[in-house]
Amino acid sequence: MAKQKRVTQCPECHAPVAHRRALTCGKCAAQLYYPKRSLVGWVFVWLFFAFNGYMLVRLYFTGLGLFRTYSTVASPTGAAGTAGAGFTVSTTAATVVSLFFEWFIGFFFIGILVLMTKPRVRL
Ligand SMILES: [Zn+2]
Hints:
Elements: H1 2-5, E1 8-9, E2 16-17, H2 39-74, H3 82-116
Antiparallel strand pairs: 1-2
């Protein structure tokens, strides 16, 4: 049986690994091979993490601004400029929406680059 010769055993759980190019064991998820990612690949990975961190910080401060604006509207002292405050709330909310949209676009494209530069195993 030529097909069975390709099957390797998992060093952790000794389960047969059917997929010749499998990076991890399908049964216990143990790492079978340690492929190397190219330098460009690593740049994309770091870019991905940096981007997410950057967007998280931006979202935090935008959310903080939104919270503060809502507090101003809710407080009795802010009652005088309700119309103006209401406008600010909607603009800040729109900023949050566009921020999420930006995040999604960036996440998607950098994510594709990360997946495209995924290390491959050559056996
Ligand atoms: Zn295993």
